Amino acid sequence: MGLRRALVAAALLGALTFTPSAAVKINGSTTVNLPVAEAAEILRSEHKLAIHVDTQGGSSGGISSLGDGLVEIGMISKPLTDADRAKYPKVDFKTHQIGSDAVALIVSRDVWEAGVEALSRERMRGIYEGKIRNWKEVGGPDRRIAFFNKEPGRGTWEVFAQWLYGDPKKAPQVAFPEVGGNEETRNKVSSTRGAISQLSASWADGENVFALGLKDDTGKAILPTNDAVRSGAYRMSRPLYLLTNGEPTGEVKQIIDFMLSPRGAEIIRKHGYLPMVDLK
Length: 280
Known about the structure:
Layout: H1 2-18, E1 24-28, H2 30-47, E2 51-54, H3 58-67, E3 73-76, H4 82-87, E4 93-108, H5 109-113, E5 118-120, H6 121-128, E6 146-150, H7 155-165, E7 178-179, H8 182-190, E8 195-200, E9 209-211, E10 213-215, E11 221-222, H9 226-231, E12 237-245, H10 250-259, H11 262-270, E13 274-275, H12 276-279
Parallel strand pairs: 1-2, 1-3, 5-10, 6-7, 6-8
Antiparallel strand pairs: 3-12, 4-8, 4-9, 4-12, 4-13, 10-11
Helix pairs in contact: 2-11
């Protein structure tokens, strides 16, 4: 019996010793998710890291999940605000920018082919406030405008509202149908005649949904290209962050360091975003 107990104890000790560490949990922005999910696959394969990536709640979900201690890394595609920090006073939020992205106004094929290729801030404000309801009022087809608004908490909406009103808090309450992540938004716009919404520019495929230019004060249309984001000419751009509670260590630091490495930059670039090295 003594030998059997010793063998059982040794087996249990061995199981405890070689049990893999808990997965690093990551949640947040569907925009940031694309390069992070690809990087996670590489880190799982090459370094045996356990990583679980989710996009529940978008940027707002990334902040709240980290603030509530449910994840080790939040993904956000908007600047972190004082209000975000105030909601979690015990959390030492640290932002780690991995790149930048353009937010585009996207339209369905019928709108694009009818000649609507750019909008001014004034015209977009009229659409958002329900004062402009038909595309013919902005040089398009005689068709009702079907606006899909990003749901609250999405970084895409905050960047849009910042451009439109100078402060997201100044945006009026509206009653448009809401969409969540990038894929849902693209699918809704592509399948709806007369549709428009806000979307990460890299998701505008030029086949089913089309990115409009933003007219500047001179009436010139500025397209959401990486060059225009880099120069600052395109006004609806945003940083892409990984968010941690305090300075990252261990596997969390390994993930962030990989995203900031040349290999990470290539992945970010592959998905249509500007990595940090291209912003310098």
